[in-house]
Design a protein that fits this description.
Substrate Binding Domain Of Dnak, Chain:A, Domain 2; mainly alpha; elongated
Length: about 150
C-alpha cells in the first residue's frame, strides 16, 4: 500500500515539476532576443519576483521530497508529516507561479493563502534542517516565498 501511495505522490510531484519546467522555459524564451519584433504591446511581468520565488520553492521542494523518499526507503518515517505538508506547498507554489505569470486579479488572495501554506511547510522543515540540508533549503525557500507574497498582499 505504501508503494502505491508513494507512486501517487511521485506522479503529482512529477506533474508539478513539468509545470515548473514549462514556466521556466517560457521565462527563458521571453529573455531571448526579440529586437526584430514590434514590442509596443509587450511589457515585462510585474510579478517576476513572486514568480521566481514560487518556482524556487517548487524546485527546492522537489529536491526535499526526493530526499524524504530516500529516507523512507531507509526506514526513517520521521519525515512523513513533512512530506504531506510539502505536497500542499508544491501544489500551492505551482499555482501561485502560474497565476502571477498570468497577472491574475486573484493573485493577492492566492498569495495570502500561499503565505499560510508556506509557513506550515517552513515550520515543519525547520524541525529537520539540522540533520538534512534539503530540508533547510526548502525551509529557506518557503521563507523567501512568504516574503514575496507579503509584498503582493500589502
Amino acid at each position: 500500500m505504501a508503494t502505491i501511495e508513494n507512486k501517487g505522490r511521485r506522479d503529482i510531484l512529477l506533474g508539478a515539476a513539468a509545470v515548473a519546467a514549462t514556466l521556466a522555459s517560457d521565462t527563458a524564451f521571453s529573455a531571448t532576443d526579440h529586437s526584430n519584433h514590434n514590442m509596443h504591446n509587450h511589457q515585462s511581468n510585474a510579478n517576476e519576483e513572486i514568480i521566481n520565488a514560487a518556482l524556487d520553492c517548487v524546485k527546492t521542494g522537489l529536491a526535499c521530497n526526493d530526499h524524504c523518499i530516500s529516507l523512507l526507503k531507509d526506514g526513517d518515517t520521521t519525515i512523513v508529516n513533512c512530506m504531506d505538508i510539502l505536497a500542499e506547498s508544491l501544489a500551492m507554489c505551482t499555482a501561485l507561479s502560474q497565476m502571477a505569470s498570468y497577472q491574475s486579479s486573484h493573485l493577492p488572495e492566492l498569495a495570502k493563502l500561499c503565505i499560510s501554506v508556506c509557513e506550515d511547510c517552513e515550520k515543519e522543515c525547520r524541525k529537520h534542517e539540522k540533520k538534512h540540508a534539503a530540508c533547510k533549503a526548502c525551509a529557506d525557500s518557503c521563507n523567501d516565498c512568504i516574503k514575496a507574497c507579503k509584498k503582493i498582499v500589502a
